[in-house]
Specification:
The complex is a heterodimer of chains A (about 160) and B (about 600). With about 160 residues, chain A is of the alpha+beta class. Chain A folds into 2 domains: about 60 residues; about 80 residues, Glutaredoxin (3-Layer(aba) Sandwich), CATH 3.40.30. In chain A, strands 2-3-1-4-5 form a 5-stranded mixed beta sheet, covered by helices on one side. The longest helix of chain A is centred in the first third of the chain and has 14 residues. Chain A is elongated. Chain B folds into 5 domains: about 100 residues, 3-Layer(aba) Sandwich (Glutaredoxin), CATH 3.40.30.10; about 210 residues, NADH-ubiquinone oxidoreductase 51kDa subunit (Rossmann fold); about 90 residues, Roll (Ubiquitin-like (UB roll)); about 90 residues, NADH-ubiquinone oxidoreductase 51kDa subunit, iron-sulphur binding domain (de novo design (two linked rop proteins), Up-down Bundle), CATH 1.20.1440; about 55 residues, Alpha-Beta Plaits. Chain B contains 24 helices and 22 strands. A 5-stranded mixed beta sheet of chain B has the order 9-10-8-7-11. Chain B is α/β, with parallel strands linked by helices and about 600 residues long. The chains are: A alpha+beta (about 160), B alpha/beta (about 600). The interface between A and B is large, with 37 and 51 residues.
Chain lengths: ~160, ~600
């Protein structure tokens, strides 16, 4: 997954920082609070750029290397911002045997952006996700929380065009 | 309290929510109100009914009428016909073969199941603790705290023969015993709700449909081993489960089932919900604990076992959601009742998530030892579209494939191990003749390659090399030596990896090599993919009989590989063809085929 340093410049606000610092103050003394803090940070900013990791490291006393280590270990944490429109295709087994690989291929082709990345204009981001648990609807594609079930590859273009 | 003359149960599990069940509930409420029925008929959002293939599901009690694939537009008709005039809306009923089933208990899908872990899913409102209590909820906890000593509780759990439902199948009672004999004062009870196996979703269903059963069982476990703090580590990808779990914890605290001095027994216990962040390895017990501690979820070598030195370095037990869900039932109905079900050393029931090429996708709970054939043919309804059953894959990326010739194998721990597969967490993916087994092995292997934490080299490097060999084979570059090397590498990774992830990663490859070696050989020697899946081994051709010479394919071919004159059969130049499939999609006469 291309989880390297992002080229998009950081646009965090003082309000966001204050919210994060407040949460850190409340929780940092609980055992094992690093992950909940990082999850909160990702909820506030939408992703975990270097600037945010530095705030967490300073406020908790956990070394930045360790924060970076955690951020890159778990799939949920992203060092890149997400697009305005987030497209994800489930590649869980049930979806895969029903052809979700071909669905993903069509999405990538249509948007011109690989799974795990974002289009140059920041409009769309594409993810191949683990089982979302809607196996009865396989194959499944999710666009900004809207679930499209039992889709065929040739229906992909029409669905995406609704968001363009 | 108001008594309702009828109840409308609408599934609020993830599958049905994805197909708009919340809108259906809202529509029911407004239509009932409109007709002045809001006081007599109650709409309840329940957990998963199990038959996800036919969602969204609506069940009307007292009759138990079972409506499938209900749309928001159908609600008006159900209210007008069924609720006002008492006439069942036939067209929405579940049809099993020719027979139409009105009640869900009449269907083969439900009749052949024994629901223990899923006993309350689809029956009660998971967000209402009173409904759980009405179904014997918290009775087991009260009994334990007021009548039994901790040792008696452990003995009862041991007597039931319950084994871990997360995959390894370790006897639950023995695990508790190990932790109970360790010295405190601090011990922890953990629940593994980081269901990562792709295609398994029973833990999610229990959390969404019956969260209190897990909380009750964890509290009982806390009493048994002498712990006062529990942690549930749940996947963040399960938002509905997380929300219901948090709500259940709050309600439970409010009722005094969690907190200080529970049932005036002097026993204190509380539970914290922690979210996972998407790492498959965190389903491994030591990795899960490292993750709760707030680090990269890397596993630790065992011994010391968690029962001795677990979370934050103190004695800890970790059980899976489904294991916990069985505990209150065992203590209410007695361990003998539980041990009566199942076969040999595999007692009780197991939930399987049926998925893939099968008619009735969903969750089924059956006594251990039920033959695979019964699950696939009777309950699952077989492969759709008349296709031939080829194999079933159990245990996800750690499991193996069961070929059609072994379809009569009983589903229990020992029988599955004997044929090179595992029960695992209960994922059961059905494959038909259109699935390529080499491609499936590659699919499963991509998982550990992605998810290996990198701590030990057999797993980190070995799985990657295995994947490279598989890629070579599926792209038509493989040799017979590659198959031997692959097998050798599998055994090496299996024997030398640090944790369960690496030790089981080669299983899908080993079992497909065992039962479908001819398919590997077809890829390597004949350079053919018998199932027609591996792109590099497919050739596109035009059937001259069917081709009308409309030129549509030639105009759409991005590389100009198709030639031919108008109204004459066309041809594909195989050296130019990039196998993109654009021609097949455009052809109106089904004249283009791949083989």
């Amino acid at each position: 997954m291309p989880n390297t340093k992002t080229l998009v410049s950081f646009r965090g606000t003082p309000e966001q920082e204050a919210e994060l610092r407040k949460f850190i103050e409340q929780t940092k003394d609980e055992p094992g609070s690093t992950m909940p803090i990082m999850q909160k940070a990702q909820e506030i900013y939408g992703y975990l750029p270097e600037e945010v990791q530095i705030i967490i490291a300073e406020a908790t006393g956990v070394p930045l290397t360790e924060i970076y280590g955690i951020a890159t270990f778990y799939a949920q944490f992203s060092l890149n911002p997400k697009g305005e429109i987030q497209v994800s295709v489930c590649l869980g087994t049930a979806c895969y045997v029903k052809g979700s690989g071909d669905v993903l291929e069509r999405v990538v082709k249509k948007l011109g952006c690989e799974a795990g990345s974002i289009t140059a204009d920041g409009r769309f981001s594409v993810d191949a996700t683990r089982c979302v648990g809607a196996c009865g609807l396989a194959p499944v594609m999710i666009v900004n929380g809207e679930v499209y079930g039992r889709i065929k590859p040739d229906e992909v273009d029409a669905i995406l065009e609704k968001y363009m | 309290m108001n008594f309702a003359r009828a109840h409308i149960l609408v599934c609020g599990g993830t599958g049905c929510t994805s197909s708009k069940s919340p809108e259906i509930i809202a529509e029911f409420e407004s239509r009932l109100k409109e007709n002045g029925l809001a006081d007599e008929i109650k709409v309840v959002q329940t957990g998963c009914f199990g038959l996800c293939a036919l969602g969204p599901i609506v069940v009307v009690y007292p009759e138990g009428i079972y409506y499938c694939q209900v749309k928001v537009e159908d609600v008006e008709e159900i209210v007008r016909e069924h609720m006002l005039k008492g006439r069942v809306v036939e067209r929405l009923l579940y049809k099993e073969s020719e027979e139409v089933s009105e009640s869900l208990n009449d269907t083969d899908f439900y009749k052949k199941q024994t629901r223990i872990a899923l006993r309350n899913c689809g029956v009660i409102d998971p967000e209402n603790i009173d409904e759980y209590i009405a179904y014997d909820g918290y009775q087991a906890l009260a009994k334990c705290l007021t009548e039994y000593t901790p040792q008696q509780v452990i003995d009862l759990v041991s007597a039931s023969g319950l084994r871990g439902r997360g995959g390894a199948g370790f006897p639950t009672g023995r695990k508790w015993q190990f932790a109970a004999v360790e010295k405190g004062p601090v011990k922890y009870v953990c629940c593994n709700a980081d269901e990562g196996d792709p295609g398994a979703f029973m833990d999610r269903s229990v959390l969404e449909g019956d969260p209190h059963s897990v909380l009750e069982a964890m509290t009982i476990a806390g009493y048994a081993i002498g712990s006062s703090q529990g942690y549930i580590y749940v996947r963040a990808e399960y938002p509905i489960a997380v929300q219901r779990l948090k709500k259940a914890v709050e309600q439970s605290r409010e009722y005094g089932f969690l907190g200080k001095n529970i049932f005036d027994s002097g026993f204190d216990f509380d539970i914290d919900v922690r979210l996972g962040a998407g790492a498959f390895v965190c389903g491994e017990e030591t990795a899960l604990m490292t993750s709760i501690e707030g680090h990269r979820g890397e596993p630790r070598p065992r011994p010391p076992f968690p029962a001795v030195k677990g979370l934050f370095g103190v004695p800890t037990i970790l059980n899976n959601v489904e294991t916990y869900a069985n505990i209150p039932w065992i203590l209410v109905h007695g361990p003998e009742k539980f041990a009566e079900m199942g076969s040999g050393a595999s007692k009780g029931t197991k939930v399987f998530a049926l998925g893939g090429k099968i008619k009735n996708t969903g969750l089924v709970e059956i006594p251990m030892g039920t033959p695979l054939r019964q699950v696939i043919e009777d309950i699952g309804g077989g492969c759709p579209n008349g296709k031939k059953f080829k194999a079933a894959q159990t245990g996800g990326p750690s499991g193996g494939c069961i070929p059609a010739s072994l379809i009569d194998t009983p589903l229990d721990y020992e029988s599955m191990a004997a044929i090179g597969s595992i029960i695992g967490s209960g994922g059961l993916i059905v494959m038909d003749e259109d699935n390529c087994m080499v491609d499936i092995a590659k699919f499963f292997l991509e998982f550990p390659v992605d998810e290996s934490c990198g701590k030990c080299s057999p797993c980190r490097i070995g799985t990657r090399r295995m994947l490279e060999i598989l890629n070579k084979i599926t792209s038509g570059q493989g040799t017979l030596e590659d198959i031997d090397t692959l097998e050798e590498l599998c055994n090496h990774v299996k024997n030398n990896s640090l944790c369960g992830l690496g030790q089981t990663a080669p299983n899908p490859v080993l079992s497909t090599l065992r039962y479908f070696r001819d398919e590997y050989i077809a890829h390597v020697v004949d350079k053919k993919c018998p199932a027609g899946v591996c792109k590099a081994l497919l050739n596109y051709s035009i059937d001259p009989e069917k081709c009308k010479g409309c030129t549509l394919c030639a105009r759409n071919c991005p590389v100009g590989a198709i030639t031919g004159s108008v109204r004459q059969p066309h041809e594909i130049d195989k050296s130019k063809c990039i196998k993109c499939g654009a021609c097949i999609e455009k052809c109106k006469f089904d004249a283009i085929y791949k083989a």
